[in-house]
Amino acid sequence: MRIEADREVCTSAGMCALTAPEWFDQDEDDGRVIVLDRVGEPDAAVEDAVELCPSGAIRLR
Ligand code: SF4
Fold it and tell me: Which cofactor does this sequence's record say it needs (predicted)?
């Protein structure tokens, strides 16, 4: 499984970085999502972050 993030859709709400800080960070300039680790197996926190993201910018594939 892998995490995909659409930075064009991201509204910089920051729920992903709050919910799963080992996987997501926010760009210092515009606050948009940065996926920190695309190699490891996503855990439950990542699934929560996907559900909580208000813009639907992140997903698991
Ligand atoms: S929760 Fe969604 S909208 Fe907010 S920073 Fe993360 S990806 Fe962007």
Answer: [3Fe-4S] cluster
Q: Is ligand 1 within 6 A of the CB of residue 27?
A: no
CA 50–ligand 1 middle distance (angstroms): 9
Domain 3-60 is of which CATH architecture? 2-Layer Sandwich (3.30)
* Coil/strand/helix, residue 52: helix
* pLDDT, tens only, 39-59: 678 899 999 999 999 999 999
Q: CA angle at residue 27 from 51 to 49, to 5 degrees?
A: 10
pTM: 0.91
Q: Work out which ligand 1 atom sits closest to the CA atom of 15.
A: 1
